Every structure is written in C-alpha cells, then in structure tokens.
Request: fold
Amino acid sequence: MRHGWLPVGALVAGLAFTPGAVFAQRAAEPPVAEAVTTLPPISVVGTNSKDYAPVTSTIGGKIETPLRDIPQSVTVIDRAVLDAQGVASLQDALRYVPGITIGSAEGGSIGNNINLRGFSARTDIYLDGMRDRGQYYRDTFSLDSVEVLKGPSSMLFGRGSTGGVINQVSKVPSLQAHNEVTATVGSDDYYRATGDVDVPLAGTSVFRLAVMGQDMHTTRDVMSNQDFGIAPSFRAGIGTPTEFTLSALVLHNHDMPDYGLPPLNGAPAPVSMSNFYGLTDDRTVQDVDSVTARIRHRFDNGVSLRNQTQYNHYTTDAQETGPNRVGTAASNVFTGLPTSAIGNITDIPPSQLYVLLGSHDRHITDSSIYNQTDLVTRFDTGQIRHSMVAGLELGRDRYTNQSYSRVDPTITGGIPGLALVPLEDPVYHGAPANAVRTATNRANSKADTIGVYVNDTIELAPQWKVIAGVREDWFKATIINSNSLPSSASQDVSFTSVRAGVLYQPTERESYYVAYGTSFDPSLEALTLTNGQQNVPPETNKSYEVGAKWDVLQGNLQLAAALFQVDKTNARSQIETGVYDVTGAVRVRGGEVSATGRLTSRWQLIAGYTLLDAEIVSASALDGTQGKVPANTPRHAASLWTTYNFAPQWEAGVGITGTSSVYASNTNVITVPGYARVDATLAYHQPKYDIRLNVVNLADNDYFASVIPSDGGRSVPGVGRTGIITLAYRF
Reply:
C-alpha cells in the first residue's frame, strides 16, 4: 500500500457512504457532530469556574457525542482536573481512573504501558482519535483532556482495544484567548515551566502555541528527567462551513529509566524504597515529531465530511540497566538463586545477597502515517431517525528495533551481566570501562492497514435508541530479524468487528443501556518479535455490558454504574517450547460506579470504584497459568478527588487513590501489595493569576506505582511525599 492511496481513500469514503435517494435528509438541522447538551446555569464562587464534568466526548462514536448516548463506560479527565491535581504526565493523569493500572518499561517496550480492565492497552493510546503507537513518555502540556473508553472497541478503532482505548485530546486554537504561563517548583529539585498562547489572525483564523520545559528529580535515588516540548497549531474558518486545522507536536525526553526493585521471597525485596538498581549513566533519549492536518466541511443539508491525516515519527536511544537476577557473590563470581522462577525463595538474609544488573539497550525508530475520512449525516427512514458515521481508515507503520547487549567479562559464574551491587545498599556508579557492547537482533517490521466502518445511532422513539456498527479491517504485517528466530514472519489478517447497544432514556436525565462489542489482536500487532506466534490467528475478544447513567442535582452531577464481562478467546498459549497455539482463554468480570461534577456551586468531585474478577480460564500446562489472575490486575481499585471553594478566592482539595494487591506476572509467584495514597491541594485564585500548592503522597506512604512482568517480576516504587508550588499567570 502506498501513501498515494490516502487522498483516494478520502474521495472513496465521501462517495461510497453518501445515503441514497431513498433516505430523506433532514435539511436545516445541525450535524450530529455539533450537538451539545446545555446544563442549567450554576453560580460559581470565585474564579475557579471550570467544571470537572464535561457532558460530551469524542471517544464513543468518533464525533462529539453526549455521554448519556454512549453505551459503554467513559471517563473524561478534563483540563480543570489536570490543573487541580498538578498533573504533568499522561501516567499521572490516569492515576485517578479506576480500572487502569500502570506498567513500566518492559523488554522491548518503553514509555507508557497501561492496563485497562485487566488487559494491556500498550497499543491502544490515541491522539485526537488517531493511533499514537510510539513508545514514549507522554506529557499533558499540549492536552485539553484525556478520554478513556472501556471495553473492546475495534469497531471504532480497529485492531487492539481489548480493555478499551485512551484518547488524548489536544488543545486547539480558539477565538477565546488562552494566554497563560506557569512556573512550578517542588521538593527534590523539581522545576517545570509551560506556556499557552492564542494569537488571533485575520477574521476566523487563530494560531496557538503550547510549550513545556522541565528538569525533574524524585524521591527515588538517581532518578531525573529533562524534557521539553512545543505544540504549535493553526486553525482557519472557525464557525464557517469549512474549517481547517494544522497542528504539530515536537517532544524531546532525556529521562532516567527505572526498573524498580527485584523480587525476594515472592514479594518486592524488603529494601529502602529509594534504592536504584541501575547505572548512573543510564538514559532514555526520545524524540517525537507528530503532524496532523484536519479539514471538515458542513453541507447545507446537515451532512458533514471530515478528513484527517496524521504523520508520526519516533526515535528512542536507550542505554538502560535493570536488576536481572538475585543471588550470592564472592569477588566477581555470581551464583543466582535457583528459585528465581518462583520468586527467589531463600533463607539467605538480604544483607548477604547481590543483584546482577543486565543491559536493556536498544535503538528504536518508529514511523506511521494514517488517514481517516468520516462522513457524518442525519436522516430519516419513515418515523425512525438516524445519526450515522461512516468512514475509511488507511494506515502504514514502519518499525526498526536494534538491540544491544553489554556485559562485564570479569563477572563469572555462568550468567552474563554488566554489574554486581549489594541488594540492601546498592553502590551507584556508571558503566564499567571494560564493558563489551555487542549488537544483537535487529528487527525490521512494517504493516499496512485498511479499515471500513459504519456506525448508526437509531432513534426508534424519544425514549429508545439503538447503536449498531460494523467494521472490516485488513491488517498485513511482516517482520525480518537479523539474529533471531524466526528470521522472518508475516501475517495477513482480516477481521469483522461489531458493536451493538440499546439505550432506554425515559427522561433527559436518565439513560439505561445494554451493549455488546468485539475486538481482535494480531500477534504482530506491536510489530515486535513473537517467537512461535507469527502463524496463529488473532486473539478475539467479546464484551457484554449493562449500565446506567444519571444526571442529578439539576444536571450538575453525573452518576454512572455498569456491570461487564470481557472474554478473550483464541488467547495465545505455549504448547511446546517456542511453539504457540490459540488454545487459551481469559475472562474478566466486574462492575464500576462513578460520580463526576458539582455537589454544590462550591464543591466538585470526581470519584470511582472498579471491581475486577479476572481469571486465565485456560492455558497450556507449559504456560502454568491456568486458573491464575492476569498480571497487574487488582480486584479492587477506587479513587476520589474533590475540591471545595471555602472562600471566594480560596480552594482546597484532597484526593485518595488506591488498589488492592496485584501479581507482577501471570504465574502469580510475585505478589505486590496494595496501597492507598493521599494527595492534597490548596489554591488562591485571582482574575490574572493562580497560586497552587499540591502535595503528592501526603502521608509519605511506601507503595508500588507499577510492575514489570519480565525477569521474575519487578516492582517500581511510587514517589514519597512531594510538595509542588505552581504560579499560573494569565494575560
């Protein structure tokens, strides 16, 4: 597939999905993309007037849709919440979303690694509705909100999306000025600055620029991040039938990788939470370049046509070291514990143990180009009303991963490594001068994607709506390895995804629904090495959900509840060493409740609780995971963030988030304890400026923020108590 297909795809979508003459268009009605729900006015104290509860989202139907019309669980973290919590990263933005757990760098993966409803969402992160598959650490300086759609959603987004998808919504130019600069300082040498300005041009055109720079350290020894970013955007034709937006994101990260603590006796090693098991010259250097062009035209008959093209280029130069094995050492002779596969069970005191550090070096180049065309129309068939989105998506991905191995030849004992450090009190130093670096496997991968879809919201009566959608995807991928088996592999997959839902809305404030959806996961989806898995069919997923959404307190507080079940069939399972078949199955049952909005004009909150009953229902004896709980899947997760304006200019808030224990890997031999973390904020608001204090982990509790399944299962500590002061100035 060539890039030349992309403009052709835009034309095909515009013609192929235009409703025929049999359908009567409802002229003079605004397109569904423009529909908004207006809440009753509310008197807000002080200048902190931003609401926590947006009433619409783009994630549930590719267009701006009222949340009550989306038959799935949706969480929207808007700019007001991000600012109140002092959030700087996507990972922190998702910390208060129950049902999400965070993973860290693992194997060939770097950047944000997220689990959603018990399933990896590593390749299910989107930027403005288009796949953002790069392995990098995402910042929030250029975002207006983060949207989370839960449940399989391949009908809307194509391959992946087993547990759901995460969509980053970028800031866009507006005729209403957003001129603001911020400066942040915090404990442990935390420094950050951002800027966000609108520059009106002629008539309906605006230029917007968001910038960020930071030098951040944490309560973890050695850890530091130096990052900067710039996000320019131009928008023309605001409020006119034809609107054009051109935007870009340029991001540079120079971060210190953190592989956490090694396991000991079936749990994270009982050592100081500040211990760092790496080398002082480790670094992950990432450069991200993303350009998006979007054009939308609204026709007089209520039809709108939108075409969006996004090009992404990511590079990562990683020199990383992590704890690979625990054992004993005499001089430079290392003997690993023989129980590493079951959590390093031993009677040897931690003071007599050592950690063998191993390298995780690689250089990754990743690029993609996607084009998506959507035709949005509203029409009637008799007394039945339709709001339809039909479209075509074309994509091309290219991925190269050159891995390296570094070893210190003076370390003997049969297990190669780069350094030996005591478990209890590791010595911090750079890479040994005699380290030998060897290029290992080089993987070159590519994939082409075509997706054709249609989603119809059918209003049978004022109280009844039916959501029906179908999508056909064609995914063709190849991988060539220079020094690994298989030396090459390819897949050519086609899959039909469906989505169905029934909504009963007896009043404008109530919505009850049942929904069904499917998704699929090809084994070459991430374009990485999959020994023995390249010739198996895709994993398939089905979701069943029943739920309700209510707007109470005159529409100012949104309540939601849902029960769901996600079944992964055709799960890959190792039947022989290096040989896989689709004989496994995973099931996640659960429920969630949430509340978002205003209790009073002074009091806002966003809260939620998720119960996950997850099980690997079937797996091969060689895998040894049947009956186990999937990694990084807590049974209970809850969060509450609330703020109160106790005086016209003063705001105070507190947040509590936590989970029950999780397993570090599917074998369930490493148990990572649950935790509860308390955060707090105090802010003083004026028309021209805000001063805000945020305290993260107010009680200075020890807890683990993420897990890494590889190398026996490692656990990454969360930050200790950290104070942050932010001055925001508007002009």
